[in-house]
Amino acid sequence: MKIIDERGRIFGKINIIDLFVILFLLLVISPVAYYSYNALSKKPEPKKVMPEAAKVFQEIEVDGKFIGITAGDLELISVGSQQLDKRGDVAAEVLALGKVSDYKTYEYKFELGGGQRIIKEAIGLKQLDARLKLKAEVEGHKLHYNGQRIKVGLPLRFKTNGKVYDFLPMPLEEKIRMQVKYTLLLAELCDFIKVGDVHEEMTQELNKIVNARLINVVFSEPSKLLRNSYDGKDYILQEQPQYRDMILEFEVLCERNNYGLFPRYSLENNTENKPLKLGNTYTFSTDLYALYNGKIIDIEIIE
Q: How far is Cα 223 from Cα 175, in angstroms, rounded to an integer?
């Protein structure tokens, strides 16, 4: 019997071309099936869990105010009041308490347009000066307490005796008296300037803060300008009755940092960022008028 007959079949059964096709398919499919099986049946390697970085804590003392509290709350907050963390450790503690004062804030404020607005002020709320010891978490150059950033002007939640209070960290404050000279003020404007006028700012929480108070009008007279004499041979000082020069004395609440003393403006309305020092300019603004670019000529820190 012939191995390959005249029709190209092996032993008269399988066509030689069909055989080559089958062998080719086996050569192609077998490796694919092998690797696919291994890939599907292989157990996944357990993921490597990186150890969590150890948290760094530091105890700090922060001065500030409990804000928006009631007269009843004053009896619940005392030196030694604490907030505990989830493990029962002390996270915050009241170290000292100071003066109690009225807390001015708004229950609501609506702008109606055309200069009309509706304002209702909350009545009976207090603020209490305090110093807290906090267990702060160090994250780079920032400090956090219970997930809250510790920063001047940002309220922190302090829970004690089953109630939660807002504690507002405050900057290192100083009061100064300073004299400022304003020149060429309109005489009509000067009629509105009175001792006792205040410069107020509105914080992001809609609280009014008095930053400066006018305590004395040291000097006030018509402005004088240097002009040519009538014969043109000399110069003379001529009064300008429509303008006035004034020296005003203010009591100003300041913040001290590494660069000096700065007016204590709210975070939202911080428009002037010049240190308070001799020769610099100072702006005083009330609800009725604004005095710009006065030159500071004298400064005294109030003890």
A: 31
The strand pairing partners of 19, in sequence order, are none
d(CA 181, CA 282): 9
198 three-state secondary structure:
strand
Could you read off the pLDDT of 165-221 as tens digits, one per residue?
Answer: 999 887 767 789 999 999 999 999 999 999 999 998 765 555 567 889 999 999 999
* Residues ≥6 apart with Cβ < 8 Å to 28: none
DSSP 3-state of 212: strand
User: In sequence order, what are the beta bridge partners of 228?
Assistant: 235
CA angle, residues 291, 206, 179, in degrees to nearest 5: 25
C-alpha span between 184 and 82 (Å, rounded)? 57
Strands of the chain (E only): list them.
9-10, 14-15, 56-69, 82-84, 90-102, 106-113, 116-121, 126-139, 142-145, 148-149, 156-160, 163-169, 173-186, 198-202, 208-228, 235-257, 260-263, 281-285, 290-301
Q: Is 276 exposed, middle or buried (0-12, 13-18, 19+ CB in 10 A)?
A: buried
pTM: 0.50
Count of all residues that appear for the chain in the document: 303
Degrees, nearest 5: CA angle 292-276-170: 110
How many C-beta atoms surround the C-beta of residue 30 within 10 A?
Answer: 10
Residues 6+ apart with CB under 8 A from 278: 296, 297, 298, 299
Give pLDDT tens digits for 18-38. Answer: 666 677 667 767 676 666 766
Q: Tokens 């006035």 belong to which residue?
A: 244
Q: Which strand (E) or helix (H) includes residue 40?
A: helix 16-41
Enumerate the domain spans of the chain.
56-169, 173-301
Beta pairing class for 281-285 and 106-113: unpaired
- DSSP per position, 228-246: E-TTSSSEEEEEEEEEEEE
